[in-house]
Each structure stands twice: as C-alpha cells, then as structure tokens.
Design a protein that fits this description.
The chain has 86 residues and is mainly β. The protein is 0% helix and 53% strand. It has a five-stranded mixed barrel with strand order 1-2-3-5-4. The protein is globular. One of its GO terms (cellular component) is cytosolic small ribosomal subunit.
C-alpha cells in the first residue's frame, strides 16, 4: 500500500471569543469576486475550534485544522498560534 497521509483542510483566522473552556471561536475571512460587477466582497465564517491548553486569547491569529466531531458544533482543532495579540 502507498502512504496513507490524510490531507485535512486548514484555515487561518482570528480568535473572536475565548470565554468557553477549551473552546475558541475563530473568524475566517475570505474575499470572493462578484459575478456581475467584479468587485471583491468579504465573506466571514465563524468556526468553533478545540484549544486543549486554553492558550488562545482574543485577537490571536491561529491556524485551525479540521478533525472529527468533538461536540455538537466543534469540528476544528487549533494547530498553532501564528501571531499573538498585542
């Protein structure tokens, strides 16, 4: 058999809330081009991510990775903190 390297989706976003225990809300923003007018529009999505060590603070830029369902709404895992908030 060949390598079984699973390629999981990753997203880069900003921590919006860290008030829950071992959970953070991460806002991921992307730009999409309007079909007719060609203007770029910002689209935002909020993801609940598992932060086992409770290290993330509001304003941190984090890399999240998809994983198995951990709760009703939590399907992402905080991989690394890219940049800490000032």
């Amino acid at each position: 058999m060949s390598e079984n390297s699973s390629t999981r989706k990753t997203q880069l976003g900003c921590v919006k809330s860290s008030s829950m225990d071992k959970t953070v809300v991460v806002t991921v923003e992307r730009k999409v081009k309007h079909k007719l007018y060609g203007k770029y529009i910002r689209r935002r999505v909020n993801y609940m991510a598992h932060d086992a060590a409770n290290q993330c603070k509001i304003g941190d830029t984090v890399l999240i990775e998809e994983c198995r369902p951990l709760s009703k709404n939590k399907r992402w895992l905080v991989r690394t903190i890219v940049q800490q908030a000032v």
